[in-house]
Amino acid sequence: MIVQLVNPYLFSAQENLCISTPNTTWNSRKICINDIKIRLNSHLDHHQQEKCCFCGLLYDRTGRGEIEHIAPKGTGLYPQFSFTSNNLAKACQLCNSSSMKHTYDSIETINAVYELCEFKIVHPYLDDHNYHYAWNYGNREVLISVNNNSDKAKESIRLFELDSVKRTRARAQQRNQERLDNLYNTSIAIKNRIKEVLKFKI
What we know:
It contains 6 helices and 6 strands; from the N terminus they run H-H-H-E-E-E-E-H-E-E-H-H. It is an alpha+beta fold. It is globular and about 60 Å long.
């Protein structure tokens, strides 16, 4: 239900030039920064299938999708990772809210190389989610539990309330809808294939 992300946004040479300009920050009002955010939004929506990187639910189940800095960029935190590809994903409004992630310090041990940092939570890109999470699927509930006694899973479940009744039921509803959609799409594909075969024979 919550899957590891494998397609981070890769900045072009022109975009890297914009980012590396002195005094350029995530909140800069430069046209090139705004353009990057537009392309980044589109890329993440497509590759995440408009699902939150933390809870796995569609954005519209818990609010709109927002670009999320997994290691927060705020003052006194990690502004140096503001434009690090593996630090950028989309989260739902609830997971990114002040009651959950917001400016939560997700790094346990800092390293100058982002990928060598140790994180407190299951990282959307860097961690194998199947190692950390286990699932029990039902028609009315999809239950999440800790796999391999993972401390990261325990913290993610606590922080994002992944074991709450609302989340559990929402996952089941989403899974049931996806199964119906897949069945319908498969049926349409079969019908179209039959039509093609009949046309060929005629």
